[in-house]
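Title: Comparing notes on inverse folding

I've been comparing how different people in this forum approach sequence design from structure. To keep things fair, I'm posting one structure and asking everyone to reply with a full sequence. Here's the target:
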């Protein structure tokens, strides 16, 4: 492809000045390979989606994104539906999709390798819910994970300054603090024709969670379904045991943890007065009830 729009988050990765230099060097690498690059920096939440949509409206065939999982999420919501191909230059905190595809972590190295990558069609996830403020039906695509319960609560409580200062470590610190405060309300999880109860669920399109935890190793971006990982205990101490089991890759052996393959999931709270939040690709989005379903053959993405 002879031209591309490169959308990037100038503050992703916590070092804005260095990020700007990296982006310009990555663009130069692509130009040397024969692709003319137009740079488009985000300035506010939602900007990446609008920039991606504007690029496709202008007939762009290749849209590149450099940023974290949240920036990638915004871009896919601007690209779909549409015929543009997506290329990812990892550059955020967790970089779930970059690790899943085994992309070079450094944006310049990724730009250098990108001309050799191949296009593949993939399915995406889509969440649908009623917005709490407007009460209007709302939907949003996601590429990696949807988290219901605990992790959405952690993201809701995580301060911007802690995230920017400490990155993944900051998230881990906040996770410990909020795990001791969260009430673990139960919700109903309906998938593969069965009703279950859970207090935390991660609905995967990718096998990794938080960038490096293999929470659902059977999940794959190239499979046309979800793999959901359900945790069912209401006991705070049990959640610290869950964490240890995940780190040791032994969580699937626990009686109160279950992996479920499905293409559609309905989640709804069971305790009145206790709102349960959910996140998509690491971004806090909404509250239950919500439906999560597969959108087949939704996006073309470049992979090594």
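Reply #1:
Here's my take.
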């Amino acid at each position: 492809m002879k031209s591309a729009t490169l959308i990037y988050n100038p503050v992703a990765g916590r070092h804005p000045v260095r990020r700007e230099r990296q982006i310009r060097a990555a663009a130069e690498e692509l130009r040397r390979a024969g692709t003319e690059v137009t740079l488009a920096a985000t300035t506010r939440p939602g900007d990446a989606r609008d920039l991606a949509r504007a690029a496709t409206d202008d007939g762009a065939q290749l849209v590149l994104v450099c940023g974290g999982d949240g920036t990638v999420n915004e871009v896919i919501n601007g690209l779909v539906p549409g015929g543009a191909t997506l290329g990812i230059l990892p550059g955020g905190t967790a970089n779930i999709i970059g690790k899943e595809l085994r992309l070079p972590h450094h944006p310049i190295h990724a730009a250098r390798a990108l001309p050799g990558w191949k296009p593949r069609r993939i399915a995406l996830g889509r969440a649908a819910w009623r917005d709490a403020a407007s009460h209007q039906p709302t939907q949003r695509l996601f590429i990696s994970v949807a988290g219901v319960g605990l992790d959405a609560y952690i993201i809701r409580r995580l301060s911007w300054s802690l995230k920017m200062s400490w990155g993944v470590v900051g998230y881990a610190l906040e996770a410990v603090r909020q795990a001791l405060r969260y009430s673990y309300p139960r919700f109903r999880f309906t998938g593969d024709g069965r009703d279950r109860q859970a207090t935390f669920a991660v609905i995967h399109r990718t096998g990794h969670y938080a960038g490096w935890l293999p929470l659902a190793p059977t999940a794959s971006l190239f499979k046309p379904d979800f793999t959901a990982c359900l945790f069912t205990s209401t006991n705070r101490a049990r959640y610290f045991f869950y964490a240890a089991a995940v780190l040791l890759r032994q969580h699937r052996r626990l009686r109160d943890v279950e992996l479920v393959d499905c293409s559609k999931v309905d989640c709804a709270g069971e305790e009145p007065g206790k709102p349960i939040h959910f996140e998509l690709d690491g971004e806090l989005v909404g509250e239950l009830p919500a439906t999560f379903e597969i959108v087949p053959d939704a996006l073309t993405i470049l992979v090594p």
